[in-house]
Design goal:
Strand order of the largest sheet: 2-1-3-4-5
Helix content: 25-40%
Strand content: 15-25%
CATH architecture of the largest domain: 3-Layer(aba) Sandwich
CATH superfamily of the largest domain: Response regulator
Largest sheet: 5 strands, parallel
CATH class of the largest domain: Alpha Beta
Shape: elongated
Number of domains: 2
Distance between the termini: 46 Å
CATH topology of the largest domain: Rossmann fold
């Protein structure tokens, strides 16, 4: 019997694993399958990209050290073109690499060597956040939000400034902004902004995405007035929100 829980109408969740190390790729895929996921491994970025034209997965686990591409470029491409979650899996432990991966929209970052079951737990966490986000977006997908002169279209992740400048937010940025817009003028803990209560409170991805939103929303990101930090508690969207 499967040790994971699926959407019965959809079957097992589809995960692609991109790693040029054959043994690691096989280990990750075997472990994911043991927990009920449908896992397919790739050793080159070209192989993954060909498969993406056939079927979009629910999640991609991407190694940064690839023989035919920069793993950061693969992460960027996934965020721009697809709605799947992304976990970076790499031997690079430098803080700059981790921050860059999260800046590009990765949902999590796992450093080798790793415990396979921990990777499964992280995959489940990312997929749960996606499911919660999609559920929230379904309820507002035909609506537009207005706040402080800004407009956000939940159906297309389009953010429009008071002056008319447009940005298409990454999936991670859009999920976070939607959390703020659904609870304006309330302090949101970092776990709430990720949509998952059991996410580590030390996850750097929350702060990275808040910073990215501030660079778009704030005239002075160093002295934010729209997305405010409430020290020791979380963040707060200081604006009145109207849904159209």
């Amino acid at each position: 019997m499967s040790r994971d829980v699926f959407h019965q109408s959809e079957g097992p969740r589809c995960i692609y694993v991109l790693d040029d190390d054959v043994d690691i790729c096989r280990l990750v895929c075997v472990t994911l399958r043991e927990f009920g996921f449908e896992a397919t491994g790739f050793h080159t970025a070209a192989g993954l990209r060909r498969q993406l034209l056939v079927r979009e997965p629910d999640l991609c686990i991407v190694d940064l050290g690839l023989p035919d591409a920069d793993g950061m470029d693969v992460v960027r491409d996934l965020q721009v073109r697809f709605a799947c979650g992304v976990i970076v899996l790499t031997g690079r432990g430098y803080l700059s690499d981790r921050v860059m991966g999260l800046e590009l929209g990765a949902d999590d970052y796992v450093i080798k060597p790793f415990e396979p079951r921990e990777l499964v737990a992280r995959a489940r966490s990312v997929l749960r956040r996606q499911d919660k986000s999609r559920g929230s977006q379904m309820s507002v997908r035909s609506q537009h939000a207005e706040f402080g002169g800004w407009r956000f279209r939940a159906d297309s992740n389009l953010l429009v400034s008071p002056a008319g400048q447009e940005w298409t937010l990454s999936a991670g940025e859009a999920r976070m902004l939607l959390q703020f817009l659904q609870r304006p003028n309330r302090i949101l803990a970092r776990e709430q902004l990720c949509g998952d209560r059991d996410l580590s409170a030390l996850d750097r991805g929350v702060d990275v995405r808040v910073s990215r939103l501030r660079r778009k929303l704030e005239s002075d990101p160093q002295s934010p007035k729209t997305i405010r930090t409430v020290y020791g508690a979380g963040y707060l969207l200081a604006a009145e929100v109207r849904w159209l």
